[in-house]
Structure formats: C-alpha cells, structure tokens
Design goal:
This protein has 120 residues and is mainly α. 70% of the residues lie in helices and 3% in strands. The chain has five helices and two strands, in the order ααααββα. A two-stranded antiparallel ribbon has the order 1-2. β1 and β2 (80-81) form a beta hairpin. α1 packs antiparallel against α3 and α3 packs antiparallel against α5. The longest helix has 31 residues, at 85-115. The termini are far apart.
Length: 120
C-alpha cells in the first residue's frame, strides 16, 4: 500500500535526517554536560521525528494522509481523498501500525539513554 509520491518521500527523508542529527547532537551534549536521567528523556521528541520520517519512507506511506484518508502522488501537487471506505480503513490501519512502531522504537531509544551510565 502506497499513498505518497517522490516529493513526499523526499520530505520524509529530510524529517528523518533532521530527527537523527538532532538526536545525535542531544546525546553528544549529554556526554559533555552533566545531565539528569529525567532531562535525557527529552530525546524522545527528536527520535520520534526521525523514526517516523524514516518509517514513512520505508513503507512509502504518510501517516497523516493515511489517518485523513488522502493520497498524494504530486501529480497536481494537491492531496486527493480516497473515496472507497475499505481503502480508508486500510489506510488508517497502516498509519496506526507505522505510528505504533515509531513510538515503540522511540521508547526503546529513550529508555536506553535514560539508563545509560554516564560518568560524572
């Protein structure tokens, strides 16, 4: 199932790389400056952005468009609404799967940084 074209895929690549680079910068700052485990949980947000960006590229599926029942292949640079109810249901299921996978990966990364033993 695919609901995005090359333009949307490129945009999601950018989100993935922005999230990944922000996460790596955050981890570097945590190594350099003393940080409490609670403060380290803030990595959740850049990791989530990066993870969702990359997952949407891998699945060729935009979760926002999927939840709203749209598809965008960039032909007229506008979103088109899916009219078939069955397809809308499949789109929502696919969007939910990608979102849950992204959240699980993000929680795992957040917990890893939370429990990582930084030297004082």
């Amino acid at each position: 199932m695919c609901n995005i074209g090359p333009h949307e895929i490129n945009r999601n690549w950018r989100y993935g790389w922005i999230g990944l680079s922000s996460s790596l910068l955050f981890i570097l700052i945590c190594f350099i400056l003393p940080s409490s485990p609670l403060l380290r949980t803030l990595i959740f947000f850049p990791v989530l952005i990066g993870t969702l960006g990359f997952l949407q590229v891998i699945f060729h599926f935009c979760i926002t468009l999927g939840f709203n029942g749209f598809f965008d292949f960039g032909i007229t640079s506008s979103e088109r609404q899916s009219v078939v109810h069955e397809l809308r249901s499949q789109d929502r299921t696919q969007a939910t799967l990608i979102l849950m996978l992204g959240i699980l990966i993000t929680i795992a990364a957040t917990l890893a940084l939370y429990y990582f033993p930084f030297s004082p």
